[in-house]
Structures
1.
Amino acid sequence: MKNDQCIFCKIAAGEIPSKTIYEDDEFRVILDLGPATKGHALILPKEHYANLYELPEETAKKVICLAKKMASVMTEKLHADGFNLVQNNGEVAGQTVFHFHMHLIPRYKGDGQTIGWKPGKPSDEELEAIRKAISE
Ligand code: AMP
Ligand code: ZN
């Protein structure tokens, strides 16, 4: 299902031009217009899914396989030193475009980017309560 209001649907369908580095029947991979590093790219499914929660399992499997392939090719061709996969869901998590996408971010020694978080210091009781909430 496509979404008429969604810019990534239009880009994935080729209706809006993009710097495409890979395409097949189900996905288009484009260069991000506001890259964190040289080569920062986005995997876009051609179907509209707002986020990871909506993504069918079969598509999710293909996304991670494609991410692995792209990471290998991009690391080699761009001489990257490492790689981040980033995937945001919901405004609070930094999602700004509500069509599922996976960020492919090549990393270079001294690139000056920070993709991270401030580590917390939970007590053992807090960790145990969280473990129970999730798994029991
Ligand atoms: P997120 O914050 O995870 O939703 O990521 C959205 C990403 O899409 C950002 O890194 C933007 O720079 C990028 N972006 C937004 N519009 C476009 C566009 N038209 N073409 C390429 N990248 C885009
Ligand atoms: Zn869309």
Note: The chain has a mean pLDDT of 97.
2.
Amino acid sequence: MGFLEKLKERLHKTRAGFTSRLGDLIQRFPQLDEEFFEELESLLIAADVGVETSLLLVETVRRRVKEEHLREPAAVREILRQEVRAILETDQVPLRMDANPTVIMVVGVNGTGKTSTVGKLAWRLRREGKRVLLAAADTFRAAADEQLALWAEKAKVDVVRHQQGGDPAAVAFDAVTAARNRGLDAVLVDTAGRLHTKGNLMAELVKVGRVVGKALPGAPHEILLVVDATTGQNALVQARAFHQALGLTGLVLTKLDGTAKGGIVIAIKKTLNLPVKLVGVGEGLEDLHDFDPGAFVEALFAQP
Ligand code: GDP
């Protein structure tokens, strides 16, 4: 199955809630009247595109319908597709892999899919011929590093671990230093994720970042926030808080396969202008992909 096919299949819940309802709306309305636009707005909000972004999108559709003298509701689908794509393509930057080693810090609330993301990314990089080291910098959660070790085993990469309760920054420092000494290509730092509302977690993550910078000037090269798409608008709240504290370089959106709320990608992008760099569409090693705005929009708007 090609990537686009797989994405289409995995996004079926979002598509069912969005594209099918859009198709329905288009069929029900013979013309583009006020009521049509109101329903379009509710439809976007229901797909978790976010109130602000939904309003903006509907405004744009209205303006273009007028300017382009469109009468057919069916034209709206194409306009939406173009506008969503434009939002997602703005300032889209791929994952950096240009430093030696490239240090990628992965942060996020527990349960969002941080550790799985680190594991899947390690697997992917290794398959691309890169030499990867993991850092188990979540030293708080019991068994967190064991879980990471399991992923390391699956992905066939090494992992640097300290004792539970140790200093997470020290783990990251050791991993980056070891990777430098061994001439490796990438270090993936898995971090703790107790609730983002606790100030001390942010302080700790800032420290990890700073210490990593001492081990290798310029690092971390990426600070990726993992957010769970099934939590909808909560993901946006988390993204805002982490970005404020850490200056994120991008997002990983997980569990897109299990949600009807895939529209959150659009809300996050439009509101925070942070690139979505990777998406998780399942629990397997192969289920992490580069975020491709074109393919995403294709999959989202695909008609059954
Ligand atoms: P962490 O606490 O943030 O490190 O989260 P984990 O990596 O342990 O993941 C939490 C749960 O989410 C696990 O059961 C994962 O298998 C699951 N998970 C992670 N990513 C995805 C995804 O893209 N799709 C699905 N369906 N499940 C995922």
Note: The pocket of guanosine-5'-diphosphate is lined by residues 108, 110-116, 193, 254-255, 257-258, 280-283, 287 (CB under 6 Å).
